Every structure is written in C-alpha cells, then in structure tokens.
Amino acid sequence: MSGRLAVVLSALLVLCALTLVHSQYQERYAFIELERAQAAARQLDIEWAQLQLDQSTLGKHARIEANARRDLSMVTLTPARTQYLTAGAR
What we know:
By secondary structure, this protein is an all-alpha fold. The protein has 2 helices and no strands.
C-alpha cells in the first residue's frame, strides 16, 4: 500500500510542479504584454501632446490671416468695397 501511495504522491507532486511552471510562464507572458501596452500608451501620450501643440500653433488667428494674404491673395474687407443687398431691389 505504501508503494502505491508513493507513486500517487509522486505523480501529484509532478503535476503540481508542472502547474507551477505553466502559471509562471503565463505570468511572464502577461507581464510582457503589460509592458508593451504601457509603452504604446506612452507613445500615444507623446503623439497627443504633439497634436495639441500643432493644433494650437496652426489655429492662431495671425497665422491663418498671414496664410490667407500670402497664399490666397486675400485682403481685409473695407467699407468702400462692401456691397449691401436690400430685399426687393433688382
């Protein structure tokens, strides 16, 4: 009887050891995935900050006006160049 008990306990011990090795492998794999996700999140934060900076720079009124004058040859509207439309007039 003690021989069978020793075999069963040995098999149980091997099974426990294999389970421990498998769970350690899964933990390492999950940790690596976590590190990758955190690195991707940091990269996205950097890109977001850069986009916010670009948006604030590109959206400034003075820059838009300078581009309109330079690229589109636009000029500021003056009262002398304004045409008013009235209802019923032809």
